[in-house]
Specification:
heterotrimer; A mainly alpha; B mainly alpha; C mainly alpha; A: mainly alpha; globular; B: mainly alpha; Helix Hairpins; 3 helices
Chain lengths: 554, 104, 524
């Protein structure tokens, strides 16, 4: 069996097992399978081993579309119609895949004290849904058939909806429905794009077959010897096949009278922007985070938000470069607004969890900005920011969860002097929040700086790049403002009597926090070895492809 | 003297149709509505037979369809009586405006 | 017509004889023997399924006057009898009194009507079979429960049904006058003989006939503006029979519409095209909007049924002209979707049948609040059906919607209305997102809300079996849709009276995947 299939369906297998094991062992099985998935996913590094030499070498191939651990099989076939089961990883998906298995494992451990939760009925259902959620998330990152991607994208919603809706806080029903409907609204547009892209690629291939006089089909853009005879859902093919790219990005290709590439780009963008989330599609996020139980918040912040960014990089940009160029300014503005608005909102919060939630909106703004400017540093920074945020934000949410378990409230202003009461916890909290702040030497810094550098570098292409960079840089100050203020209010100051008896972070809690803290530091100190070596090859090749197509059609 | 042609029959049928629809919409008594249904069905019959009589291309089929319509109308009337009795048992009236429990 | 030809109608005869037996047993028997009505009815349907399987796919057999046995017949037999068996399971203990014999016989007669509609090759037969589908349903509603509301809803359904049948008859008379024949196969050429060559404007007589037929059938499929009865009828009738009302008349109505459209060869005059376009758009929008504001689950599902009719009308409007396969052929998509819809809708109503609050059947959202805590498996079944109705993967409802909207997108630029159809599909996609809100409310109510008045289990095992089969089928058909989809595809092959317009369709589904020179044709 292909290793990717194994990774994706191991959690689902665990879910099946959870169905039958006796109730007290359910959580053991869940943790076991989450660990197993994590370990198996680590073995993927094997193929990427050697890092630096390969970064520019043959490992990422000579063009976008070099994949590893590929698995392809027909799934639903009909006349002139095929949906494939098509999995594979490249530099874009590998780090996110590892991040998912890691955060999945840590969140699973964070669910260990399920019995002490306020709503502690249905432990079996909880862990089954949790593992199914992990399968869904892993599937999104590795599937390279648009249809399969869409299925995983949608399927992942269901467990999330139930996990928030059943085990959430007091306003869980509202939050879960809002989360579901927002995401669904986005995926409806994605569905339109899915079907339209299929039929437009069909007609592109048909006319190419006529033009070339090859009734046996046209050659695939990246697979040697493969022939295309009808439309495709293959995300790589859609991006690299010259016939499809010419048709998609040509100014003469229209959909309902509107130019095809920008319209489809926008349809897909809105779907992913809701997930990212960026202003103005972000309003589901604070509600979902506040109501979700701690481990689910970790998953939500650590993995789900990354799917938005992954979607931009996998679908919007390589497939519709012409659309990317048209919308660059709008996207950059949305990114900068998200950075500033998210930071200002975070500053105004008195609910601990809501503050962290808004900080996510702000941090994801950098991802959008970095992608929008279409420079090497921008893409790399955006990718790094996703990974960094994927580590620091689950840590922050877990830190909030730890204190909420003890105090049963999240009012920032009622806390104080926690560092003195809980020294171990306080230390971890400082690392986590400083990483989120973007302190040099911690993970948050690299991503933000790279994005800002990338934005400046885009100044030669876009006149608006400098002001954007300056505005985004000012966001760093706001971030520092709300996080330092938060640390002062919660962790510093005199010890408060009502919190005096609190026990420090337990062994389990420390065990969850330490890996994240270590990674926060490791990513900050060794960005090349931990992230860039694995991602940059694919990202640079993708950018070359995008620039090439833009040059060709304009 | 004016000769009676296809058009006249079609007009008669259309008038029957209109009268039937009007009856169905305005009558409150279940039996009254049923009469409206019968008028519309018979407008179809007039049409069918007229087509058979006046059009070269139409053969006997229309008359068969008319017979089927008549038979089905009878079956429908039987069901109608059953349903009306059922309504009467429940509400002691066949005035359909009284039956207004179901609203949304 | 020989005896051999009559054996081709095996499933139909089994239903007819079975229905008569059940009716007689029910009329004469003491109450103990009435217990046998449901099992006998089920056996009859299963035997008919067996006969369908043994007979195989008929190849356009016209040896029986008035009938034309085609792959469409075969497909409709399968889905009607399959879902019919589930309908009988859902109605197993319905109604509780001595009327079960009549009740089951009516179900069988109605199913028989659908089977014959699929084979009808004559306007006379078509009118007759549509009535055969409808008349038993009037009786079924009245019998379904001892309640003033059931009586009221049967009156409403009957009078509107009778009116639509009368309008249908009036419309058929015009079509006959225009074509000079009642044989559906030749109605199209009849219209051409009468001076209306296919593609040229249809004569006003035929057009009037077409409009009236469409109006009459719009009632059967519950399209706006003839949808007004739906909510009241669904609310008044008992839940298990409501599950059937969402499928049987809709299927029969759509088959009849397909046949009429095929007679016109899908060459619609502009005015007619826009009429159907508007009806489809308004139907789905009105259905979804009204469903959003309901508190009663049955009324909600009633309006959802209206909305689904809207989606199906999109596929009907596309027709088979865009190409083969469910992603392209609108009729295949429609036939696929109506089977999926029938199953998931029945599943949802079976779930409602399985519970009661006090002495009352569950109806409102409050009644099913917190159901998941008490009956996790039934709640899961209802949730699967709700997600399928929503069109959410991993359920077959998603594929159904994908095929329907996909067929609309597949219309090439050569089609005169392709932009309008794509716009309609986008309206449909947006509508399905609106629809998600109320289906999600059902799920949310059973899983998230606390129970106020806990619903207690009602009825026996068969209803639960029905629910289980429906929900499992939704999941399985998502993973392996190819069989049903390819059957739906081959069902459309014989639809056209004039095969000129229809491209050569290869009989072997495997050969379809091979690259043949046909695929090279951009006109697909």
């Amino acid at each position: 069996m292909n290793i990717l299939t194994l990774i994706v369906f191991l959690p689902a297998l665990g879910a099946l097992l959870c169905l039958v094991v006796p109730r007290p062992h359910v959580r053991t099985v869940a943790v076991l399978f989450a660990t197993l998935t994590f370990l198996v996913s680590l073995s993927l590094f094997g193929s990427f081993f050697g890092g630096a030499e390969n970064a520019a070498g043959s490992f990422f191939g000579s063009s976008y579309g070099t994949l590893h651990n590929v698995e392809r099989a027909d799934w639903i076939t009909g006349q002139r119609f095929a949906i494939e089961y098509f999995l594979g990883v490249d530099g874009l998906s590998l780090p996110l895949l590892i991040l998912t298995t890691l955060v999945g494992l840590l969140a699973c451990l964070a669910s260990w004290n399920f019995d002490q939760w306020k709503i502690n009925k249905g432990i079996r259902a909880y862990f089954i849904l949790f593992l199914l959620l992990e399968t869904g998330m892993l599937g999104v990152f590795v599937s390279l058939d648009f249809f399969l991607f869409y299925i995983f994208w949608e399927v992942m919603l269901l467990p999330m909806y139930f996990l928030i809706g059943v085990w959430g806080g007091p306003r869980r029903e509202y939050a879960a429905i809002k989360f579901f409907l927002f995401t669904l609204a986005g995926s409806v547009l994605m569905l339109v794009a899915l079907v339209a892209m299929y039929f437009y690629s069909d007609s592109a291939i048909n006319s190419a077959m006529i033009a070339q006089g090859t009734p046996g089909g046209i050659e695939s853009g990246y697979r040697d010897g493969a022939m295309l005879t009808h439309g495709t859902f293959d995300l790589i093919e859609l991006a690299v096949n010259p016939a499809i790219q010419n048709h998609f990005n040509a100014a003469s290709t229209v959909f309902l009278g509107i130019r095809f590439a920008p319209l489809m780009f926008m349809f897909l963008f809105i779907g992913f922007a809701i997930k990212l989330p960026c202003v103005p599609f972000h309003t589901w996020l604070p509600d979902a985070h506040v109501e979700a139980p701690t481990p689910i918040s970790m998953i939500l912040a650590g993995v789900l938000l990354k799917m938005g960014g992954y979607g931009f990089l996998r679908l919007c940009y390589p497939i519709f470069p012409a659309g990317a160029l048209d919308w660059a300014f709008v996207l950059a503005v949305i990114g900068v607004v998200s950075i500033l608005y998210g930071a200002l909102c975070a500053m105004a919060q008195t609910d601990f969890k809501k503050l962290v939630a808004y900080s996510s909106v702000s941090h994801m703004g950098y991802v959008l900005l970095g992608i929008a400017v279409m420079t090497e540093a921008g893409f790399q920074g955006a990718m790094f920011q996703m990974i960094a945020h994927g580590i620091s934000s689950p840590m922050c949410f877990f830190l909030v969860g730890v204190i909420y378990d003890r105090a049963h409230h999240r009012e920032i202003n009622r806390f104080g002097g926690l560092w003195l009461t809980m020294p171990r916890y306080g230390t971890m909290a400082t690392i986590g929040f400083f990483a989120s702040l973007g302190l040099p030497g911690l993970c948050g810094f690299i991503g933000e700086v790279w994005v800002l550098l990338g934005t400046f570098a885009a100044g030669s292409k876009f006149t608006w790049a400098y002001p954007m960079a300056i505005l985004a840089a000012s966001g760093v100050i706001l971030t520092a403002g709300y996080i330092l203020w938060l640390i002062r209010r919660v962790y510093l100051g005199r010890e408060k009597e009502e919190y005096a008896g609190y026990s420090d972070a337990s062994a389990r809690e420390t065990f969850i926090l330490v890996p994240m803290a270590v990674l926060c530091i490791a990513l900050g100190v060794l960005p090349m070895q931990t992230v860039f070596n694995y991602t940059n090859g694919t990202l640079d090749l993708m950018l070359q492809h995008i620039v090439g197509v833009i040059g060709m059609v304009s | 003297m004016m000769s009676i042609g296809l058009t006249e029959y079609l007009v008669v049928a259309a008038v029957l149709f209109g009268a039937g629809i009007f009856t169905m919409i305005t009558k409150r008594n279940a039996i009254g509505i049923l009469i409206g249904v019968e008028l519309v069905l018979n407008s179809a019959n007039v049409n069918l037979v007229a087509f058979d009589r006046y059009l070269e291309r139409c053969r006997i089929d229309g008359q068969i369809l008319a017979l089927v319509v008549i038979v089905l109308a009878a079956a429908e009337a039987a069901i109608a009586v059953g349903i009306c009795i059922n309504l009467y048992k429940n509400l002691a009236t066949v005035d359909v405006d009284t039956a207004a429990k179901l609203r949304g | 017509m020989t005896l051999d030809a009559l054996t081709q109608l095996g499933p139909e005869f089994m239903l007819l004889i079975g229905a008569c037996i059940v009716l007689i047993v029910g009329a004469t028997a003491a109450s103990q023997r009435v217990q046998w009505a449901s099992p006998v009815a089920l056996v009859v349907v299963l035997l008919a399924i067996l006969a369908t399987w043994r007979l195989g796919v008929p190849e356009g057999d016209t040896s029986i006057p008035g009938l034309w046995l085609t792959p469409l017949t075969y497909y409709v037999r399968w889905i009607t009898l399959g879902i019919g068996a589930l309908v009988i399971l859902a109605n197993w203990h319905q109604p509780s009194e001595s009327e079960r014999g009549e009740y089951m016989a009516m179900i069988l007669f109605s199913l028989l009507g659908v089977l014959l509609t699929a084979s009808a090759n004559d306007l006379v037969v078509l009118f007759f079979t549509i009535e055969l589908v409808s008349i038993p349903t009037y009786v079924l509603i009245a019998l379904s429960r001892q309640d003033a509301r059931a009586a009221e809803s049967s009156v409403k359904y009957f009078f509107l049904g009778a009116m639509s049948a009368a309008i249908l008859a009036y419309g058929l008379s015009f079509l006959y006058g225009a074509a000079g024949t009642t044989t559906i196969q030749t109605v199209g050429s009849g219209l051409s003989v009468a001076g209306h060559v296919t593609g040229a404007p249809v004569s006003s007589t035929a057009l009037v006939g077409w409009l009236l037929i469409f109006a009459g059938l719009a009632f059967k499929v519950a399209a706006v503006p003839l949808h007004v009865y739906v909510a009241d009828v669904y609310e008044g009738a008992a839940s298990p029979i409501t599950g059937m009302l969402g499928f049987v008349p809709k299927l029969a109505g759509f088959i009849a519409l397909i046949k009429i459209f095929a007679a016109f060869d899908w060459t619609l005059p502009q005015s007619v095209f826009w009429l159907v376009w508007i009806v489809a758009a308004v139907t789905m929008t009105v259905g979804n909007t009204l469903a959003l504001i309901q508190r009663n689950v049955k009324r909600m599902l009633a309006y959802s049924s209206v909305a689904h009719t809207g989606y199906m009308l999109v596929a009907l409007l596309v027709g088979p002209v865009a190409g083969e396969g469910p992603m392209r052929d609108g009729v295949a998509a429609l036939l696929f979707y109506v089977a999926i819809y029938g199953t998931m809708n029945l599943g949802a109503f079976a779930a409602l049948t399985a519970f009661k609050t006090g002495q009352r059947a569950v109806e409102t959202l409050d009644d099913i609040a917190g159901l998941a805590a008490r009956a996790p498996i039934a709640a899961l079944g209802l949730a699967v059906c709700a997600f399928s109705l929503m069109g959410f993967p991993p359920t077959a409802g998603f594929l159904g919607k994908l095929y329907v909207f996909g067929s609309a997108f597949s219309l090439g630029e050569s089609h005169p209305f392709h932009q309008a159809v794509i716009a309609l599909a986008i309206i449909g996609v947006i509508n399905s997102a609106i629809g998600a809100a109320y289906y999600l409310r059902i799920v949310s109510t059973i899983y998230v809300r606390a129970e106020d008045a806990p619903a207690a289990p009602a009825s026996g095992r068969p209803v639960r079996w029905c629910l289980a089969v429906c929900s499992i089928a939704m999941l399985i058909l998502f993973a392996w849709p190819s069989q049903l989809a390819s059957q739906a595809r081959s069902a459309t092959v014989a639809l056209h009276a004039t095969p000129t317009r229809y491209h050569a369709v290869s009989e072997d589904p495997d050969a379809a995947n091979d690259t043949s020179p046909d695929d090279f044709d951009p006109g697909h």
